[in-house]
Amino acid sequence: MESVDGSRRGHLWPLQRLTIAVLVVFVAAAIGLYVGATKLVGDQEHRLLKERTAEVAELLSGSIGVSLTSSLAPLAAAAQESPAAFLQEAQDAAASSTVAATALVAKQGGTWTVQAAVGQALQTGQTLDDARLALVSSADGQIHTDLFTLPGNQSRLGITLGPPVAPAGSVIYEEIVADPTRPATITQSEPFHELNAAVYVGSKPVSSDLLLATTSKLPLTGDVVSSPVKVGASTWLVRAEAREPLAGSFAHAMPLALGAAVLLIGLAMTALVEAVARRRNYAMALVAERTAELEDSLGELERAQQAVVANERLAALGQMAATVGHELRNPLSVLTNSLYLIRNAVSGVTDDRLGRQLDTADREVAAATLIVSDLLEFSRPRTANPTELDIPGLLEEAVSVAPPPSAIQVVRQDGEAPPVFADRDQIRQVVLNLLTNAYEAMPEGGTVTVGAHVGTDAVDISVADTGVGMDSATQARVFEPFFSLKTKGTGLGLAVSKRIVEAHAGTLTVDSRPGQGTTVIISLPLASVAAEAGAR
């Protein structure tokens, strides 16, 4: 439980894959909704701007056209009577400070000359030239306009009205002072106060044709809409941009609000999915932990059951071995004594066949006695009497006691081997048993390598042969009591050896391959390690 809780508390990052996927989806949705809503609001703003600009153009067309017509028509009517009547009408109408001149211009020969004029810009008898001449020359029964610049960067708006409204050969000319550098002031109460607009005398937004503007920041940038303005026979152009949101502040705030709302919902869903995923992972980890614990418990129970069965089996085998050993010991002793008496009684007989039979009987009785000794050793193992044991000396003694057959060579490979704490006789019995097995595994001869070297906290004694080896099935059963592939023997040697080594807190392991020989390793704890274990 602690490991699961610790894992749950200690891993707040990274997020689960599903959580990241949910978060990415909602973030993408929020961005998409924001972009889409922004485009819709922008389209609505552009449509409203076009409508407002068209309204401004229509208003300018109507107001300027009416104003100019109402201003020039009376002058043209007076000019039909006489230049004096025109001059009187012009003086009565001269009230605006922006009107630089009002004149009656007539063509005399190849020139246009001022016949009557009110204002400082033109004088009676003055001959027109340049921009004024071009404008007057093209005059007809409709109002014509043009914006030009006089010396000294003075901007003037020229307006003409010619025949048949004016007298034949004459043109009504009015010149108005223009100052495009001074923005026109528009208050909140005036129409279209939410627009920044610029009016050009011409069909293109050329800076030299700028008549007036409501802002000094020109040219206009951003979302700008143009609309033509019809003034008499001339075409003007009005360009406008929104000074403030035309669709309202709520519409402009809506994309951000929608995006933020979707993002908040996404964060909430992310937190919910992450919490559910972590709870699921915690539950799965808890189930896995409990399953592992259950499997471990079942494994321990199975091993314990197998150990109980093995112990019961060994106990039964031990009881049987003790019974058989006791029952056979006495008859074997009788046979041994009988053979001794027979050999003494026939000592003078020279029959070789009788001697060979007696020798065979002695060997078989000795073999049977050895079997009885193994059975008794297996049934009632001796109590160990541990002392400090010199391993290299023990190996030398074992090889001398059990010398190899003529076709087998014994090689010593002793490394540094400190003393161990063990029963000398019992360990000697194990080493002798391993040497005998190694010899028997090489009927055609070979090499037995005996050595010892120190590990971390134990001394390893190895006995290796180059014999026939064992397969995995045989290797798995070599320590079973009474298991043997040899024609002779009880199959108790390795079982007794394993019991002796384990009684010394050591291990006995076998490594073998068919045709590659067998290596048996006895690992015994160092004397210092054994002493510490005994002290505890």
Please describe what this structure looks like.
It is a single chain. This protein has 536 residues and is of the alpha+beta class. The chain has a domain at 384-535: Heat Shock Protein 90, CATH 3.30.565. The chain has helices at 2-10, 17-81, 83-93, 130-137, 249-345, 352-379, 391-401, 424-440, 472-477, 493-503, 527-535; strands at 99-108, 111-119, 144-150, 154-161, 170-178, 195-200, 210-213, 224-231, 234-242, 387-389, 408-414, 420-422, 446-454, 458-465, 507-513, 517-525. The strands form four sheets. The protein has a five-stranded antiparallel sheet, with helices on both faces. Strands 11-13-14-16-15 form a five-stranded mixed sheet. Helix 7 (391-401) crosses helix 8 and helix 8 runs antiparallel to helix 10 (493-503). Mean pLDDT is 83; it is low at 6-10.
CA gyration radius, whole angstroms:
62 Å
The computed structural class is alpha+beta
Percent strand: 15-25%
The major β-sheet equals:
5 strands, antiparallel
- Number of helices in the DSSP assignment: 11
The geometry reads as: rod-shaped
Q: Could you estimate the helical fraction of the residues in percent?
A: 40-55%
Mean pLDDT: 83
Strand order of the largest sheet: 2-1-5-4-3
Please identify, by name, the CATH architecture of the domain at 384-535. Answer: 2-Layer Sandwich
Contiguous uncertain segments of 5+ residues: 6-10
- Find the count of extended strands (DSSP E, 2+ residues): 16
Task: Write down the CATH topology of the domain at 384-535.
Answer: Heat Shock Protein 90
Give, in order, the helices and strands: HHHEEHEEEEEEEHHEHEEHEEHHEEH
Kindly, what is the distance between the CA atoms of the first and last residues, rounded to a whole number of angstroms? 32 Å
- By CATH, the superfamily of the domain at 384-535 comes out as Histidine kinase-like ATPase, C-terminal domain
CATH top-level class of the domain at 384-535: Alpha Beta
